[in-house]
Structure formats: C-alpha cells, structure tokens
Amino acid sequence: MAVAVVAQALWGMARSLCRGALQIVIAVLAAALVLRWPGLGGQLLVMLLAALLGRWLIRPVFQVQVQSPPSGASRRLGACCLGLALLLLVLLPGLVLLWPGRLLSLFDGFYRVGALVFGGGHVVLPLLQAQVVEPGWVSSPLFLAGYASAQAMPGPLFSVAAFLGAAIDGWSGAVVCLLAIFLPGLLLVIGVVPFWQRLRHRQGIQAALAGVNAAVVGLLAAALYQPLWTSSVTGAPELVAVLLALLLLRSGRVPPWALVLLGAGAGAWLL
To answer: 154 burial class (0-12, 13-18, 19+ CB within 10 angstroms)?
Structure first.
C-alpha cells in the first residue's frame, strides 16, 4: 500500500513541478543519479547540479512584490539559528566519537537526515533506511512496516522517526529521534525567513529553485523504486494489489490512511 501512496504523491508533484520539457529532463537525470549514488552525498550533488541547470537554462515568470524589510532583531535571530544549525551538524559526529552511545548516535543520525534532506516526506525514506537498517538497528521488514504505519497517521511523514526510535531504544529513543529530525528544519526556517523575502523574488533564485523542485520529483521517483518497489513488489499478486490501491487513491474516495489499514487487514487475513 505504501507503494501506491508514494506513486500518488509522485504523480501530484510531477504535475505541479515538472511543467516543461527541461524540468522533466532534470527529474529523470536526478532519479538516475540518486539510484547510481544513493545516500546523502548523492542527494546533495543532485540538488547542486539541478540548481545550476535551473539557474542557467530555466526562465521563470518574474514577479516583483514589495515586502517590508525584516527588522535588525529578526535578522540577528535568523543568523543565530543558522549558525546553531550548522554548528550542530559539524559538531555532533565528533561528539559521537568522543562519547559513544546509542542515544547520541541516534540524535546525530536523525539530525543529519533532517538537516540535509531536501523535499521532505517520502524523499527521506532511503536516508532513514541507511541510518537504521544498514547498521542493523532495525530489520528491513520492520522499517517498511513503520513507514506504512506513518501513512495512516496525521501530520508529516517525519513522524516515522518516533516509531524507529521506539523500536531501537524505547520511549527515550522515540523522543530523541523525533526531536532530532525536526530540530534542523525549525532552526533553518527561523534562520532563513528574515532574508527570504529579499532573495525569493530574484529571477536567478527562482530559476535555481525551479531546477531543484524538478530534481525533488526525481528523488521521489528514486525512493519509490528503491527501496519501496524492490522490497514490496516481488510478483504478480503484489503488482495487482498496487494497481488496485492506486486506482482507489486516484478515485479520491479512499484516503491514504484508510488504504493502509485496508492493506494491513488484508495482509493479516491472507497470511
């Protein structure tokens, strides 16, 4: 069922963010590169290349909007939050080496995922998998079960961090992982907002963001294929189930959470 939910999200993002041939090309290239070089490094490289391609090749509609400048106090607060976000990103790996421990390692890993992922939501899936499945903290079936359960919960998909943290280290792990994955986003939002109004209306910035947004579609397509499709669709019955679930979602009559519950019930009955 998670495959159908992500496919539906991919379709919606592609329609809104890939409206031209160039954006489609960027999305396809982004998916291919991330599948070839998975992980945070590959995603960051793809984002940088997409921003450069967008800056050079995309011509967005330029609209001038007059905004009141931010106060000096808000700029100082923004600079402090940006500095703190960067400081934690740099220092946490060193702290883990000095004081090894599961909770500190969890905070470091989930903070890094929250700080460096672009696009959020389903794009975070392969990064979280690298943090918790590859070290052996949780099994791949349990990871995918938690991801599917997060589809049935209200709120952002990052809430899967609480499930993974609880599976690794109980309530303390759930709290640490949830705080760690949301903290960098909070710091970055507070830090960027005072400067964003001045930057966002520059044509070069708009063009670069158009390229990055197209690349996010490619990242989501890569996440749909690996690990979701490769782990979930292993034969004709699974393929039929995915197609039926996608048709139900496209009809607009079945919400994702109901589809997840339906899939869980069907799986328990059949197995």
So the answer is: exposed
Task: Provide the CA 270 distance to its chain's centre, in angstroms.
Answer: 32
pLDDT given for residue 173 in this prediction: 94
pLDDT at 63 exceeding the cut of 80: no
Rg (CA), the chain: 20
Strand segments, DSSP code E, in the chain are none
Distance of CA 237 to the CA centre of its chain: 29
pLDDT number for residue 108: 94
Answer left, alpha or beta for residue 136, where phi above 0 means left and psi between -120 and 50 means alpha.
left
Quick count: other Cβ atoms within 10 Å of Cβ 115? Answer: 20
Q: List, for residues 259-269, the tens digit of each pLDDT value.
A: 777 766 666 56
Q: Provide the CA 140 distance to its chain's centre, in angstroms.
A: 18
**CA 90/CA 96 separation, integer angstroms:** 11
